[in-house]
């Protein structure tokens, strides 16, 4: 029997554990449910926590931030992310975790993943798990016109103003900005942003493009050009934002 901590944006009660990971209450582990505040773990001794689960089923951006904070703390316990199938397309080396488990996993699969993670222990600690051992490895912010996409902090600024984007809006804008001047088809955007297992139509791309243009504002909405019958193109010259640069 292990002591598990589940960090979730849901209410911090036992019912949330069953909502996030239905198979968890069926296993013989002690589960403590807490909010998405890593500070709660600092009040617990190492002997009180064997493994941390982070709920990434509701807000991927928030979950990624929590995972990076946990990595920076250098906890000597394995960290697992609980994800939905739609998140598999966006997980990469920038997510500091030891393993992941689908929210739909049955008790047998969940028990096996927990057993393996507990047996291996954390893959690394501190700056290594945060991916920050070498500052030069951090992705540079990409600047096109006066739009700055910062992958390290997952923020977007336009004319120096922070934009309030959803996760998909951020991913869509990031992909377009990474390919300035290139015509990208709707099917390509659907594949790259929503993943190959997404069964919705390309209309989804059009809806998100409209929302992006609205948030960029009338003075910048033309940065995302429409190629009728094909797709979209982000216009402008690309360049990394240099340290100390001042937003327009």
TrEMBL record:
<keyword id="KW-0805">Transcription regulation</keyword>
<dbReference type="GO" id="GO:0005829">
    <property type="term" value="C:cytosol"/>
</dbReference>
<keyword id="KW-0010">Activator</keyword>
<dbReference type="GO" id="GO:0000976">
    <property type="term" value="F:transcription cis-regulatory region binding"/>
</dbReference>
<dbReference type="InterPro" id="IPR001867">
    <property type="entry name" value="OmpR/PhoB-type_DNA-bd"/>
</dbReference>
<keyword id="KW-0804">Transcription</keyword>
<feature type="domain" description="OmpR/PhoB-type">
    <location>
        <begin position="139"/>
        <end position="236"/>
    </location>
</feature>
<keyword id="KW-0902">Two-component regulatory system</keyword>
<keyword id="KW-0597">Phosphoprotein</keyword>
<dbReference type="InterPro" id="IPR039420">
    <property type="entry name" value="WalR-like"/>
</dbReference>
<dbReference type="InterPro" id="IPR049170">
    <property type="entry name" value="GlnR_N"/>
</dbReference>
<protein>
    <submittedName>
        <fullName>GlnR-family transcriptional regulator</fullName>
    </submittedName>
</protein>
<dbReference type="InterPro" id="IPR036388">
    <property type="entry name" value="WH-like_DNA-bd_sf"/>
</dbReference>
<dbReference type="GO" id="GO:0006355">
    <property type="term" value="P:regulation of DNA-templated transcription"/>
</dbReference>
<dbReference type="GO" id="GO:0000156">
    <property type="term" value="F:phosphorelay response regulator activity"/>
</dbReference>
<dbReference type="Pfam" id="PF21695">
    <property type="entry name" value="GlnR_1st"/>
</dbReference>
<keyword id="KW-0238">DNA-binding</keyword>
<dbReference type="Pfam" id="PF00486">
    <property type="entry name" value="Trans_reg_C"/>
</dbReference>
<feature type="DNA-binding region" description="OmpR/PhoB-type">
    <location>
        <begin position="139"/>
        <end position="236"/>
    </location>
</feature>
<dbReference type="GO" id="GO:0032993">
    <property type="term" value="C:protein-DNA complex"/>
</dbReference>
<dbReference type="InterPro" id="IPR016032">
    <property type="entry name" value="Sig_transdc_resp-reg_C-effctor"/>
</dbReference>
């Amino acid at each position: 029997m292990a002591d598990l901590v589940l960090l979730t944006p849901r209410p911090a009660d036992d019912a949330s554990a069953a909502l996030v990971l239905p198979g968890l209450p069926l296993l013989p582990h002690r589960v403590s449910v807490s909010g998405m505040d890593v500070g709660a773990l600092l009040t617990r001794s190492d002997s009180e926590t064997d493994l941390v689960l982070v709920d990434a089923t509701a807000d991927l951006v928030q979950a990624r931030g929590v995972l990076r904070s946990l990595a920076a703390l250098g906890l000597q316990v394995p960290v697992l992310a609980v994800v939905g199938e739609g998140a598999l397309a966006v997980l990469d080396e920038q997510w500091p975790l030891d393993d992941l488990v689908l929210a739909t996993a049955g008790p047998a699969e969940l028990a096996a993943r927990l057993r393996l993670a507990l047996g291996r222990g954390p893959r690394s600690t501190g700056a290594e798990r945060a991916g920050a051992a070498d500052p030069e490895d951090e992705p540079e912010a990409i600047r096109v016109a006066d739009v700055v996409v910062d992958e390290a902090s997952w923020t977007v600024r336009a004319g120096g103003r922070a934009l309030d984007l959803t996760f998909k809006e951020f991913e869509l804008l990031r992909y377009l900005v990474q390919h300035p001047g290139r015509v990208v088809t709707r099917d390509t955007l659907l594949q790259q942003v929503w993943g190959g297992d997404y069964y919705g139509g390309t209309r989804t791309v059009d809806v998100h493009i409209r929302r992006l243009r609205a948030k960029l504002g009338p003075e910048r909405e033309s940065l995302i050009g429409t190629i009728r019958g094909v797709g979209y193109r982000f216009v402008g010259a690309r360049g990394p934002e240099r340290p100390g640069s001042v937003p327009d």
